[in-house]
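Need the bound structure for flavin-adenine dinucleotide, inputs here:
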Amino acid sequence: MRLVDGAQIAAGWLDGETLQPLDCEGDPTGPLRAERLIAGVYRSLGVFMAERLAVTGAVRIAGASVATGDLLRGWTEQIAGIDPGAETLARYLTDAAVRPPPGEKHLLPGGMTTPLEKVAAQLPVTLRTTVRHISIDGAGVVVRSETGQIRARHVILTAPPSVAHAIDLPDMPAAQRAAGDQLRAIPAAVAILPLGEAAAGDSFAYVPGVGFLTANDGQEHATLVAKGAPAYRLRGWTRDRAAWAKTVTALGVQPDNRREVIVREWHDDPLAGGGFTAPVEPAGDAARQWRTPVGGRLHMAGEAAWADEGHPYVDRAWHSGRRAVDAILEELSR
Ligand SMILES: Cc1cc2nc3c(=O)[nH]c(=O)nc-3n(C[C@H](O)[C@H](O)[C@H](O)COP(=O)(O)OP(=O)(O)OC[C@H]3O[C@@H](n4cnc5c(N)ncnc54)[C@H](O)[C@@H]3O)c2cc1C
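Answer from helper R.:
Posting the output first, comments after.
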C-alpha cells in the first residue's frame, strides 16, 4: 500500500478533540502510554485514514514528542524485530505479527532445549545432527544427515526456510524455494551479563536503542536480548564494560565486570538464520507456497510456515506442528 504523509490532512479530521502533548522520555511505561495515544488517533480517524497514515504521522498527530515516537518505535522493534515507523497505523494496531496481543506468558526455566530433551528421552530422537538431504523416493522419503540415512513414509521439515536452503531438497520446486527465501528472519542477539551475586527477585527494563534486559530471581547473570537493528550493535555495546555495568545496575543488581560477557548472534547462526520471521508484507502468499507438501510426503512446519497467521512465537510453531501431523494422519487414514 502507498503511504501518504497524512499527518497534516488527518489533523483536521480530529474534529476538535484535544490530545495532550506527551513526552515519555525516561518513563519506563512510556511506550505503552504512547501506544494508547495513537490508538486514540485511530479511533478518531477511522479505518480509512488509519490505512493510509504511517505510525510516525500518527505520533505527530497525537502531539507526542519526537523522543516519545522514537521510544515507541524502538520498543516495538524489540517485540516484532522491525521498526514500525513506516507501517500504517491500521496495521500497527491490528496485525498480531507487528504487535502481539497481551496475554498469559510462560517461562521455560531450562531454556528452549527443555521440551526437545523431554521428547528425546521418550522417542528415538537424534539431537545435534545436521540434515543435509531430503528426497522423495518411491513410497517414502529419504533423509540423510552427517551420521547416516533414515527412511520414512512422511517427513516434517521444521527448519526455518532461510536455513533450509542449506539442505539439498531435489524434489522441491524452485518457486517454492524462492517463496521460502521471502520469509526472512529478523536479526536477533543475546548477551549474558555476569552479576556479582544472584539476583534477589525478578526485574525487567527496556533500554532504548539496545534491547530488553532481564534479571531472574536466583540467577547470577542478567540477560539482554536485542532484536532488529540493535542486534547488530550488541557486540560493540557489551564491549563497553562501563556502559553495560551501569545499565545492569539500573535493574537493582550488581554487575561483575571482571567476568566475560557472552554474546550469541542468532542471525549469524547457520541453523537459526535469525530470531523469527520478519513481519514483512505480503507474507501470506510466500507462507502458503512454502508449506505446500512436496510430493504429498514432505510437510513443512515451524513458525515461518504459518507467517500469515498470528504472531511469530512458540505458539505459532506449536500449532504448525499440529497441523502437519493432522495432515499426515489424514493421509494415512485413507
Ligand atoms: C531473542 C528471542 C526471544 C524470543 N522470546 C520468545 C518468547 O519469550 N516467547 C515465545 O513464544 N517466543 C519467543 N521467541 C520466538 C521463538 O523462539 C520462535 O518463534 C520459535 O523458536 C520458532 O520455532 P521453530 O520451531 O519454527 O524454529 P526454531 O526454534 O528456529 O527451530 C528450528 C530448529 O531446526 C534446527 N535446524 C535447522 N537446520 C537444520 C538442519 N539442517 N538439520 C537439523 N536441524 C536443523 C535448528 O537447530 C533449530 O533447532 C523468541 C525469539 C528470539 C530470537
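Comments: The longest strand covers residues 131-137. The chain has 13 helices and ten strands.
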